[in-house]
Protein 1
Amino acid sequence: MTGTQCFFFIGCFLLSCALGSDWRVSMPQNIKVLAGSCVLIPCSFEVPDAYKARLAQVTNGVWRKHSRWFTDGIDVFNSSVSQNILRGKIVGNLTERNCTTILHNIPRNYTEKYYFRVGGGFLYTFPDFVNLNVKASPDKPLVTPVGELMEGTQVTINCSAAVPCPRLPPALTWVPLSLGASKKGQRVNQDGTEVAFSTLSFKASHLHHGQRITCAANYPLEQGGSSDQAAEAVILSVLYPPKNTSASVSLSQPVASGTNVTLTCNSSANPKVEGYTWFRRRGSEVTEMRPGECLTITVTEGNTGLYHCEARNQHGKQNSTEVQISVKGEAWWIWVVAVIALLLCGSVILGLCRLGKSRKSPSNLRGLSVDESSVYANINTVTKSRFMADNEAVYSNEDEAVYNNEDMTYPRKTGSSTGQSGAAIDNYDLYINHTTPSCQRRDIGQPAKSKS
Ligand SMILES: *[C@@H]1O[C@H](CO)[C@@H](O)[C@H](O)[C@H]1NC(C)=O
Ligand SMILES: *[C@@H]1O[C@H](CO)[C@@H](O)[C@H](O)[C@H]1NC(C)=O
Ligand SMILES: *[C@@H]1O[C@H](CO)[C@@H](O)[C@H](O)[C@H]1NC(C)=O
Ligand SMILES: *[C@@H]1O[C@H](CO)[C@@H](O)[C@H](O)[C@H]1NC(C)=O
Ligand SMILES: *[C@@H]1O[C@H](CO)[C@@H](O)[C@H](O)[C@H]1NC(C)=O
Ligand SMILES: *[C@@H]1O[C@H](CO)[C@@H](O)[C@H](O)[C@H]1NC(C)=O
Ligand SMILES: *[C@@H]1O[C@H](CO)[C@@H](O)[C@H](O)[C@H]1NC(C)=O
Ligand SMILES: *[C@@H]1O[C@H](CO)[C@@H](O)[C@H](O)[C@H]1NC(C)=O
Ligand SMILES: *[C@@H]1O[C@H](CO)[C@@H](O)[C@H](O)[C@H]1NC(C)=O
């Protein structure tokens, strides 16, 4: 029995020695320090019962760099010495086993292990240490991810940044400032280190969609000035139902009966519009037409009316304003035909008269007329061939009539030199992509999109 007890006692004693169970220090494992600023090291310790009585005599503490042993380590701060490698202060009450310390103006190359050594009633260097990681510029602040926001909801975005030196906390600023109100604060983490935060609140609007929000941290330094700015940005994604829904028509109205026109529905939504429905209204009668972003109709008296589209996604729907589809009166056409016929007759008669005159002085007039026509023909072939060459890929499937329309709509292109025409085509492509997302509005001479 005595042998077992003895063995037990010895084993216990060895174990407690090996683990140093009663000598214990608590401090963070790692602290990021900003060079030129201070660092607060939260610290508390325990002593074996046998030493508790002598705690009252504990008067000083030392921070030893690199090694626990005085042969290898360097004492960078001793609280009972006035000239130290590092300026500092033990802010905790050592007799209450609080060894919390502030070390000032940490040089850049002071990344090391730091051990605490207590002195006074007894001398002891604790085996646990803190890693001080000294950095020239601060880490980016942390911005809470916000995910997808529903329009109209109140949003709070939290930005937080470490405060290694509580006397000189970072200033946190939001860009853009105008977004909403922010609330600032400082909090102590479980391990005793501190963190500064700023909480920005605003109501999500579709106008915020795609907007970049930045939280910037500016750390002042002990010698004045401040360290590099550290900033983190988030891009807002706001979900919203269709907005700015509009309907447009490819040809200005009225048009001749039998003309094909394309109606295009345009709307902005997030997620993008899932479906479009077209309606025709005639008085109080509303007819639902084919669905789709574009609606091509062959205009007749039978399908004139006010057209509008409805765009929808999972968050809602919206109707566009109405566009009028109408047919030019028949009578108007008869008049036009009559006038053209009259003009033709007139010119034929005039031509006959000229023919009669020209026989009297043939050499003069014939020479002039030949010159004129050849000049005209040259211009025509030059402009047309250039245009065709520049736009071969885009237009290869188009017919003559389309080219002629293009010539009239975009005269700049035909006149541009080869050097400039590249740029002109780029602009033109942009224009197509922007206005005709997927509709083929061939009837006004715009080519189908060549790229997808
Ligand atoms: C130690 O002292 C510091 C500075 O006075 C204080 O903020 C901290 O709360 C104390 N820690 C404990 C465990 O009492
Ligand atoms: C430290 O704590 C002891 C015991 O609680 C107290 O008597 C002493 O005044 C304290 N010292 C300081 C500087 O606060
Ligand atoms: C740290 O750098 C300074 C000069 O910047 C130098 O004087 C000092 O010896 C260096 N200390 C260590 C521990 O490397
Ligand atoms: C701090 O320095 C003083 C004076 O040199 C010394 O007596 C004391 O033991 C040192 N403290 C520790 C904890 O080593
Ligand atoms: C923002 O972050 C700080 C620090 O992590 C935290 O104390 C605070 O409660 C957070 N605020 C909100 C609104 O989430
Ligand atoms: C709707 O149009 C207005 C005015 O043109 C514009 O300010 C707004 O950003 C547009 N909304 C969307 C969702 O595109
Ligand atoms: C109008 O569209 C219809 C059907 O797509 C087509 O058959 C017809 O040839 C087109 N008419 C004109 C003038 O382009
Ligand atoms: C859009 O118009 C159609 C036809 O007038 C109607 O049935 C529908 O409810 C309207 N949609 C919205 C969102 O107002
Ligand atoms: C469609 O709407 C967007 C924004 O609401 C606008 O930028 C674009 O020019 C419009 N397109 C057409 C063809 O109206």
Protein 2
Amino acid sequence: MESVANIQNNAVKKLAGYVNALRPIIYINHFDFQAVDCLIRAINDKAKIKEYNEADGEVDFETKARKQKYDLNSFLLAFDDNEEKEIFLVLKDVHHKLRNPEICARLRSIAEKTIYKEGMNVTVFLVCSELVLPPELEKIVTIFDIPYPGDSQIKAIINDYTENFNIPIADNTRERLTVSFRGLSDFEIRQILNLAYQESGLIDHDSAKLVLEEKKQVIKKSDILELVQDDSDFDDIGGLEGLKDYLLKKEKVFKNIGEANKFGLDLPKGILIVGYPGCGKTLSAKATARLFDVPLLRLDIGKIMGMYVGESERNLVRAIKTAEAVAPCVLWIDEIEKAFAGINGQSGASDIITRLFGTFLTWLQEKKGAVYVVATSNNIEKLPPEFLRRGRFDELFLVKLPNKTERKKIFENHLRKRGQLSGEIDIYSLLEKSPDGGKTCKGTEGFSGADIESVVKEAIEMAFFANGTLSTDILQECINNTISLSDTMKDEIEELKKRYEKHNFKDANKEPEITKKRKKNEAVLSSKSSGNKGYGVGTISPGSGGDAGYGVENIIGSLIGGHPIFKYLTNDIG
Ligand SMILES: Nc1ncnc2c1ncn2[C@@H]1O[C@H](COP(=O)(O)OP(=O)(O)OP(=O)(O)O)[C@@H](O)[C@H]1O
Ligand SMILES: [Mg+2]
């Protein structure tokens, strides 16, 4: 196992490599100035070091004692005239000053002398908690990222900490924490271990919860990704069983990343969900994070566009790095076709968008970390074809209008969510045209999930204003009054259908249509065989079911409002 000293060595070697190659200005974007000081000192323990920071002016690098208080320009001017030629110049937290052309010119002057003047050897370290890089400096600045510790390094830090304080730690706790600590610095890892130990006197599985809190801080501080707090649950999705089955397999990997890695399994990259409007794409993206039990981060390409040359790309890289730091996480990009509109000359994307697209695509293809990308789109015509090629996303899913089985589940889910799912409501009668030629109820064929949700909401509101009881009649009335997606977008839906057929998308709506109607003796009962929190439909036949005296034949794994008296049968069904 790697020692802690070794970890620092790797960073020192890399930084020393830059210094020896006479890179004149090195930008270290980090918040832990003490760690950066150690690193700089370790490159060359004899080097003369001059330090300036925004708060105190010139200070002694070793003792931090104030030497002289003047502004950055005067400091650089005095230095530029100075005869000393072999020196490290450490400038801390000066990022706000880098927008000043005079400062930029002064830094360029020092850099050029180092590059072109014999015997002049100055390395400027810009040590800032923010990355600000004006175009004038771009070519002469080297950005140095202090690498995050890898798995064996994280283990070394945990061991170092626990051995120092004589704290016992179980092997599986160490494994679990190692995965959680990915993307955090040595300093942050020690801080969390400290906090966990202070709080509970132990380092155990619960310590990992503190890691999530710390990672949330990382996202908030970066202000480039949005941390979405959403309570959409996987069980809220009605239907889309094809997509759900697929994600349930990925859940296993995401919840056991340590073991999956050991086993040699590649971490899943992510999926692209395309399909009809209002049919659950966004809902599925949000629910994936809940399923994996990881933070949901939203990437908004509009938000990362910057004013300076190269700023947008740097912001995208920063967003990607933040996501990697927070991993395991879900990175959600809604309506991805809008983010990269006009790529491939369709409507003349700007150079910036084209470059952003390239950066994103390369990352997607090469990424190894536990960032699961879920992108959604309802307009594949505008979607760059690169996204549809193999190797970018693991799978491309098509979400269609819900079939009868799915409509039933969507009704149940939305009724249940609002506490209105009861055996009194005949959901079957809401799914298709009523036998009187659709006079009583026109049915919900061609309705999107969003249409069904709005029917449920409206019906509940009507019931509240009428007599306080939601009934099948009210729901039917609302259905009849609803102009569905297929009504409003008839031609577009046909057009979309043709477009989708041209591609080889995986079917998100795997489930077969319900083919039978409920029989007379079919009752509603609680079922855990559905794998859901809801109720199942079964046929009750007295005498065939052991102790309970009931057997269940023909469980249609679907869900419907249940009656409490049947709940005790659950065990027999399971
Ligand atoms: N399969 C479903 N199960 C449960 N609710 C659904 C389903 N599909 C859609 N809904 C409901 O409809 C609303 C809209 O769904 P969502 O935002 O996921 O659609 P979308 O496919 O992303 O649409 P768009 O293409 O317009 O962005 C959500 O509030 C959700 O509750
Ligand atoms: Mg959406």
